[in-house]
Amino acid sequence: MTAFPIEAVREKFPALSLADKGRRRIYLDNPAGTQVPQAVADAVSRCLLTTNANLGGYFETTIAAQAVVDEAHQAMADFLGAASPEEIIIGANMTTLTYHMSRTLGRTLKPGDEIILTRMDHEGNVSPWLQLAEDLGLVVRWLPFDEKSWQVEEATLAALLTDKTRLVALNYASNLTGSINRVKALTAIARNAGALVYVDAVQYAPHGLIDVRDLGCDFLICSAYKFFGPHMGILWGRRDVIDGLKPYKCRCSSNGLPERFELGTPQIELMAGLTAAVDYFAELGAAAGEGGSRRQKIAKAFEVSIAYENPLAQRLIDGLSDISGLAIHGITDPKRLGERVPTVSFTVDGIVPETIVRQMNAENIFLWSGHNYAWEIVHQLGIPAEHGVVRIGIAHYNTATEIDETLESVHRVIAMLRQQRS
Q1: Residues 6 or more apart in contact with residue 371 via CB below 8 angstroms
Q2: Residue 147, SS3?
Q3: Residue 111's pLDDT band (boundaries 50, 70, 90)?
Q4: Which of 137, 219, 154, 136 is nearest to 193 (CA)?
Q5: How far apart are CA 40 and CA 26, in angstroms?
Q6: Could you write out the three-class secondary structure of 262-297?
Q7: How is residue 367 annotated by DSSP?
Q8: Residue 366 binned pLDDT confidence (cut-offs 50, 70, 90)
Q9: Of 354, 340, 341, whose CA–CA distance to 389 is shortest?
Q10: Average pLDDT score, the chain
Q11: How far is the C-alpha of 167 from the C-alpha of 163, rounded, in Å?
Q12: Rg, C-alpha atoms of the chain
């Protein structure tokens, strides 16, 4: 396999060369949002400076703006393996789009209908459905994850399904444990029972190739700013499903797809950045030797980036496992590395996560503490929500040297805090 071109990759991201008072930055806050390549920033700027107009007119800038919008939908169709750009709905963010789609789907539901939510999901794929259930008198059934496998098990889902189940909301990968669910198998079980399946792929999209047609789900959502793009959300909907839905929208706005689901004037300049982010993956695949379609190049990019990221994740897990009293909440078995994304969360006996993170942030190592909106996970695990975990998230622009520096800091900070406590 072609070696991952880490130095060439890092050169594309201006933020990676920034320093503060002479101190380097280590970006391990990636599950909350990645840095962007220069090409993304350039695309946003170019759009604002040369194609800045609203849509629907006949002059040059409005025609060019429409091309930007069309290109973004096609780029995401290629990224997700969609049958058509008409299945791609672009909006402000994942949570806003999920609220919008949940209310639209609510028009098809009645009191007593059942929906299944997991204890593994980000709150953005929980609260919209909980509140819809409260509004409509729906029954919510909770699907826990297995604390040994760290995944949602097929048998557990099957046991919850009834002839009243109308929707199952799942996540592809956890933003806290990093675990990847077997979405294709779970989807097949749910759809065989007659339920729609709504998949949150926000945390998976930066780390693995998504093929919506192969998964068999009805909806899948992700966020561009998690995969080196601008702050936007993207929702894919199966054509035969979304074509029959009646969204909330202005009376005089288009009834076409996907326009009927995209409220108001779009974020055209950010759509330009979105296309550039997808093209970044395609360029990475081309550099790895793939000469086919954009979709094929994206697939190659993920092939080489996964092969690069996984050893970094294992290096991090191994280094953390050496610390007594430290518990990693997620898969640690090297043989199961392919069943997780490189997001690693942990707690340490007797030490509040924020105290660790504050010390490491002061060393310009960027990471997070807290529940990180994985509200159901921390409650299932019995972790105090007000404290949460320490979360370290790797992207394919990170290096082994950065992981080693981070591990050295974790060891030193924990030792210092323990000494202060004693």
Answers
A1: 176, 377, 378, 383, 385, 388, 389
A2: coil
A3: very high
A4: 154
A5: 21
A6: CCCCCCHHHHHHHHHHHHHHHHHHHHCCCCCCHHHH
A7: -
A8: very high
A9: 354
A10: 98
A11: 11
A12: 22
Amino acid identity, position 203:
Q
Integer angstrom CA distances of residue 207 from 173, 230, 351, 396: 10, 17, 31, 8
Q: What percent of the chain has pLDDT over 70?
A: 100
Task: Report in angstroms the alpha-carbon separations of 173 from 42, 191, 210, 343.
Answer: 31, 20, 12, 10
DSSP H or E run through 200: strand 196-200
Residue 113: exposed, middle, or buried by beta-carbon count in 10 A (0-12, 13-18, 19+)? Answer: middle
Model pTM greater than 0.90? Answer: yes
Q: What are phi and psi of 363, to 5 degrees?
A: -95, 10
Lookup result for tokens 């396999």: 1
Asked whether 378 and 177 are in contact (CB, 8 A), the reply is no
- Alpha carbon distance 83, 239 (integer Å): 8
Amino acid found at 185: A
Q: Are 220 and 236 in contact (CB under 8 A)?
A: yes
**Residues 367 and 360 sit within 8 Å (Cβ to Cβ):** yes
Residues 6+ apart with CB under 8 A from 168: 115, 116, 143, 157, 161, 186, 190, 195, 196, 197, 198
The pLDDT value recorded for residue 422 is 78
Q: How many CB atoms neighbour CB 210 within 10 A?
A: 21
Measured distance CA(101)–CA(103) in Å, rounded: 5
Q: Is the pLDDT score of 56 beyond 70?
A: yes
Helix (H) or strand (E) holding 309: helix 294-321
Residue written as tokens 């159901």?
376
**pLDDT at position 1:** 52
Q: Is residue 3 very low, low, confident or very high in pLDDT (cuts 50, 70, 90)?
A: confident
Cα(318)–Cα(237) distance, rounded to whole angstroms? 40
Q: How many residues does the chain have?
A: 422
C-alpha distances in Å from residue 178, one per residue of 118, 171, 232, 299, 342: 15, 11, 22, 21, 6
Is 287 within 8 Å of 8 (Cβ atoms)?
Answer: yes
State the Cα–Cα distance between residues 72 and 224, nearest whole angstrom: 11
CA distances from 63 to 92, 93, 271 (A): 23, 26, 15
